[in-house]
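Problem 3 from the worked examples.
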Amino acid sequence: MHEIMIIGSGGLAKEFYTIIKAINKIEKKYIFLGFADVENEGKVIIDGHKIIGDDDFVIKKFRKSLIVIGIGDTKRRKIISEKFEANNFKFPNIIHPTAAGDWENISFGKGNIISANSTFEAHINIGDFNYFNKNTTIGHDVIIGSYCQLNAGANISGSVEIDNCSLIGAGANIYQGVKIENNTTVALGTSIFNNTKSDSTYLGNPGKRI
């Protein structure tokens, strides 16, 4: 078993804890140590687990622990991950037991989180520190960069490419062969039929840049 802790203590951090808990019900893989945050040390977050200190405390005291970054903001997630990487921490890929995928034909980086009932097809390439919320579907031959977030019920068709730090809203649809450029936000329920431009937000059906 591996010691593991979550950086962050908000709603997303609690969601990630429930995935770890679900994994342990199937197979005892992790010893959960607690949460790390910059304030409210000692506060109970869930199931009696507390905030045990801030990032620097974790780096000083828990160098052998695995790290999960439970931060929704992609820029903060990147900064925090780089801080812990510089101190040689390891970041497991955490996959809910109900997620389905052709795992032998899926390439993962590190620090990815996959929530319940998500589905992954064949020949998918995934970078680092991405979050796939509940009921996301990822089609064949998809490429996903790093620090992306796909919210609940997002549907990604085959041969789509999603570049770094992009946010795909709940229930959004990305159609076959589309490229989502860096730092794109696709709003809730939006359908994207054509390539996006970087550093942009899209809304509607069909999705338009706003």
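Problem 4, a separate protein:
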Amino acid sequence: MRLPCIVGRKAFQAELRSHQIDDVVLNLVSASSHSVHRGTREIAASPIDCYYLNTQLLGECRIEQRGKSVTLRLGDVGFFDGAETFDLKHHKSKPLKVASLMVPKRMLGDDMQERLSTGPAILSRHPVLGHLLSEAGRSFDASPDRMTDDVLSRLSQIVLSLAVTAAQPAMARCEPATRSRAQVHRIRQIIRQNSSRQDFNLPECAAHMGLSVGYIQQLIARTGERFGAILLDERLATAARLLTDPKNSHLSVSTIAYSAGFKDSSHFGRVFRNSYNQSPGEWRRQTAGID
């Protein structure tokens, strides 16, 4: 989804281009000098609980949050919590340009929450991964309007994977478990991207990863989950979203079940009730207001 817009104020001009990439949103912002304050009111009104992963493409920006301040300069990649009040100050930048990924917190888990508990961080200063992360982040500036959705999706996955790894504490980066966490993160992304396909299965996921089926199962088992359960949860979440979308009010529950990746509408009804304590029809009427 591309939403070009121009915002004009007395001394503040900005151009925003927005791209929906799977569950992540990429915002490309070009602007003159300005400051941004995001307070509790704006946070409460936001429909998404997210992190911001910003790559400074031009100029510099000071991020202030939790009593900590970091300054992003050309090529730096910074990470901060979108659910905490923050200030962005671009006073020294005329003009400036930023590529900002809005990443839902559920995609990254508790590790990143712990990493950001003391305030914003500059991930591109990592001695090994920093250059790779910076170059990957700056690639968003290469005319994304001409990139296919698949290329944008793969690029965002690369940036997120590098960011997650770079954000780990120094001791954790030395542990073998770090690679396993990154692999599980990638497995979840593949499942999420393919869950609406009825023929998607464990062997295909393993092929995407370039790993064996047995190793995929071992990785997931270490988290206390199973491939089938993760896939089912993703399909149920997709169905729940489709059921509440007014644009789908003319579609039957069975049609939505098939669109979410289910092969049998009766099975869909049973597992949906088990997870949501309501039938799909009840969920639709309650959340979408359809009589």
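Solution to problem 4. Residues 83 and 155 are 25 Å apart (CA to CA). The mean pLDDT is 81.
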